[in-house]
Design a protein that fits this description.
The chain is mainly alpha-helical. The chain is built from three helices and no strands.
């Protein structure tokens, strides 16, 4: 149950970073990672998968997509 808490902190810390860095995409990334952290426990329990696996796949996909967008934009 540690992974969702870490993901929640990661997602929430992107929100104040967006205006500091002047990169509005971070608002979206922060919101998506926060939602992923909050929904990973119910999804994992309903499917019988470990919580850390669900959190990792969801947040990893979001962060990878954001990194690719940043590189290509």
């Amino acid at each position: 149950m540690i992974a969702p808490w870490v993901a929640l902190v990661v997602g929430l810390h992107f929100l104040p970073m967006a205006p500091l860095l002047g990169y509005p995409v971070l608002y979206l990334v922060g919101a998506l990672v926060t939602v992923a952290a909050l929904t990973s426990v119910p999804v994992a329990r309903s499917r019988g998968i470990t919580v850390s696996a669900v959190t990792g796949v969801m947040c990893g996909t979001i962060l990878l997509a954001a990194a690719m967008f940043s590189l290509l934009a």
